[in-house]
Each structure stands twice: as structure tokens, then as C-alpha cells.
Target: L-arabinose ABC transporter ATP-binding protein AraG
Amino acid sequence: MAAYLEFDQVCKFFPGVKALNGVSFSAHAGQVHGLLGENGAGKSTLLKILGGQYKPDGGRLLVDGRERHFHSSKEAIAAGIAIIHQELQYVPELTVAENVLLGRMPTRFGFLDKQKAHRIVAEKLAAIGVDLSPSAKLADLSIAQRQMVEICKAIMQDAQVIAFDEPTSSLSHRETEILFRLVKELRDDGRTLIYISHRLEELYELCDACTIFRDGRKIVTHEVMADVPRERLISDMVGRELTDIYDYRERPRREARLQVQGLNGKHVKGPQSFVVHGGEVLGFFGLVGAGRSELMRLLYNADTRSGGTVLLDGVPVPAGAPADAIAAGIVLCPEDRKEQGILATASVAENINISVRRNDLRGGVFLRHKREAALADEFIARLRIKTPNRRQEIRLLSGGNQQKVILARWLAEPGLKVLILDEPTRGIDVGAKNDIYRIIHDVAERGCCVIVISSELPEVLGISDRVIVMREGTICGELPRAQATETEVLRLALPDAAVPAPTAGIAPATAAVTSPPVAVGTRTAGAPPAPSAATNTEPPAQPTRSIA
Ligand SMILES: Nc1ncnc2c1ncn2[C@@H]1O[C@H](COP(=O)(O)OP(=O)(O)OP(=O)(O)O)[C@@H](O)[C@H]1O
Model:
């Protein structure tokens, strides 16, 4: 098969960073080519070169046998290249049709012909099986729908190369299925597709071939991805063997520390109760809209409670502002860390130290700087954050490394007693996931309570001592680790119509204050599957092991 797209010794350097260091590989027409690598390995930088956003510092890019030097995104588009970026690029105030035909709107008597534009785009949307009105405003659409608009745009520009940068990180299961169908159709149509993802399961499902990056270098290209065992992919990516990614450790049973009694508020359905024991990792699982994040926001005082009490070590946590929760030792690392937490032009060290800075003024400015520098360096090392140094502006880090910095900020919170992590590993590579799991277990071993909300079922099963399942705004059951199998958790999480008759051993979590003790036994029949089966928001209707 002739190479349609060829990277030949491509280099890209930033101050202190060799983002790409002599990368060569080819992708073919009619192929989905996966790009794999840890956060900061250079994958997005390569797409930015392909899309004309960055000029390479060395090497050649060939498209259909012809050497290309793009000076702008426009030139890349004209050469038939479309990039579906992590942060989608669209004009929110314009309609679907106007966005799809941006810069190429049909005219009639010198005026924009909106009717014709809508008709053309409606036909194309129907042809690719996307149910979307061409007159809808982009601002009113979901991320998934905006992504479909981008894909429609790429198809209408007749792009022969379409590259996706982590397209499924914010999609539900159903939306992901639609995306996969489109990608497969585009492949069958003979286009060249580049696909970046940290989710091995979906890479196995979609990709014909793959190239693995590490630290700006190409490690290997596999022409037949299906032949490569997953352990090999992981060790090539992270440069070390990872046998037990979840790093689960048995811990002695301790007393209940956090008691949530009848907590109620706008986005949960009725009073909710549960306990967390010292040293326990409690997983929260549920479908999209199950109310997990909302319940935690109530607990953290980010939303207003309409009833209930929260006791930490027997002392009530005042219902007020998040500051009251933090003062009591409760910390919430939110789901949309980037939007809620990033100070883009501040340094890595400043971003890590924000909350510490607020609390600790001992010893004057000089000592404070020293403490902050030491703390930043400690977390850069512990989480393996890829940055030239702690002074680097956070906006210059790769997406996954920005996530790690924000996570470090919450982990560094002094006086931590209850750590709540909402989707802590979204967008994070497999090696870094392992680092985060290790830290979660370290925090629990110190006697803290750790609550982890995750839509990745294998992750919940892999790291939790106990799992609470929510459905439609209410806690509908809990399972100790020994009984928390994929089937049982999904049985609780799925709507009634899809639920087979309950089996013995599932505790309804009504009187949660007297919930069963922490299960510390090792997994039996429900041994956790390997990581990264990203069921994301809506697990499949049929509970299955979905691990490659
Ligand atoms: N504009 C920039 N200035 C300085 N450094 C940069 C810039 N863009 C990227 N980098 C650095 O280049 C390296 C590669 O980043 P890149 O975004 O390509 O990684 P990635 O493999 O896509 O990671 P992720 O999986 O986290 O998205 C990182 O160390 C990043 O910090």
C-alpha cells in the first residue's frame, strides 16, 4: 500500500523541550492510524504541524508523495487536511450550516444564500447519518454535536486526511458509537485517518496500524495493531513494565470518619446518606446524569444544601461555602479541572501552590517561596509532570500534564482528611494513571477518606474498597469490593427496564450510616479487568468485559 501521508525526520523544539525529535512514519489511504504515547510525548504537536499551526524545525512532511510546507491552517485545509482538535474551533453564534461552510458560503446576486447553505448542509448531514438541524446555533449544541459539525465540515472540504485528537474524552457511549461509525465509513471511503487516544480499548477497535511515541521520539510503528498485545503497547509507551496498574493494597479496617446523613439539594432526588471510613477508597459509579458530581458538590458546599448533615470525625461540617469544607479538611478536585482551576499564564509552581499560599504565611516571603518551590518539585516528581521546570507557564504544558498540575494542587492541600476526586484520570495516559492510583492509595493509607467518581468502570472496580452506585439522582446500592463485579455494578446503574432481577448480596444503600464495613479482601470472581475500558458516560446495555 502506498503511503499517503509521510513524516520524515520531523523535529519541533520549544525552549527547554524537544517536543518532536526526528520522527518518521507513514500512514496509508484507507487506514486508521493510531498515535499512542504518554502525556507530553509529542502527539498533539505532530498534529499541529500537519494542520499548519506549527512549522517544523526540521524534517519533511509529504502528502500524496508531494513535499509540503504549510504556513497556515488555511494552506493545510487547501491541501486536503482536516484536524479535529481537542479544543474544537467554531464560531458559537453562527449556525451549523454557516460553520460547516465558513469562508465558502454560497452567494446569490452578491448576497449570502443562507437557504442554499442550509439545504446543502442538511443533505450532507443526512447522508452521513447525523441528526442535526443546519439552522441550530453552535452555542446551543453539545460537544458531541459540535464534533459532528467539524467532521461534516472536513467531509465537505473533501479532506483526504482527517486527524482526531482525543475525540471521545467528552462523549457518551452512544455518541462514541456514532463517531466510530463515521470514522470507519471514512476509512472505507479511502481516506487517511489519524487517531489519538489514551484509551487502548477504542484504539484496538478502530485502528489498523499505530505509532508509539515517547519523549518526542518514535518508538515503533505496528502495521497490524491487532497483532500487538496490550502489555507490549503499554510498556512501549511508558518505558517500563506495568503489571498491576491499579496498585490496589489491602488496608486495615478503620472507624467511620465521614458521615453524610440525609443530604439533600437541587440536583439530587431526596435525602442521600453514606459513610466513608478512614483509610477507605470509596468509588462512586453511575451513568451520565446519575447525580454523583452533584452529590459531591453538596457535600463540598459548592451547591446549597436544602437538608441533611455532614459529620467529619463526629464534628458537623457547616453548610456554607467551599471554604468551610476546606477548613474542615474536605477537598474536591472537580471534573472540569481545566475550566474551573487553571491559571493559564501562571507557572506550574504557582498553580500547584494556590491553596497552600492562602494558608501558610509562616516565615515571611523568602521562606514561603522556598516551601512553594520544594512542594512544586515534589509533585512534579511524584506525578511525573513533564515540564522543563517549575517556572514554566502551565498553558505551555500538554493537556494531560496540565491536568496533573491541577490534581497536584488538591493533593497538596494541607490538613487533608477527605479527598474527593471527580474523574481523576480523564485525558491522562496509562502510566500517569498508575501514578495517580498510587497516590490515591498513599492518601488512604494515611487514614484519609478518598472518594473517587469515575465513569470508567474498570477503574472504579480496580481501586475501590467499596462501590456506591447512583441512578437518577439517588444512591441505589452499594457493593463491598469482593462483590463489586462489572455485572453487579451495571445491574444497579442501569435503568429498571434494562435490569435483570437482583441477585443476593447487593446491599440497598438506604441506611448508609450503618453500611457494611470496608471490604479488604482480594477480588475473587470479579477480578478487575485491565484499565482504560472507557465506558465514559453510558456503559453498554449488555454488561460485558470490554477490555482489549
Ligand atoms: N507552545 C509550546 N511551548 C512550549 N512547550 C510546548 C508547546 N507546545 C507543546 N509543548 C511541549 O511539547 C511537549 C509535547 O506536547 P504535546 O502537547 O505534543 O504532547 P501530547 O503527546 O499531545 O500530550 P497529551 O497526551 O497530554 O495531550 C510537551 O512537553 C509540551 O509541554
Q: What stands out?
A: The pocket of adenosine-5'-triphosphate is lined by residues 14, 17, 19, 37, 39-45, 386, 396-401, 429 (CB under 6 Å).
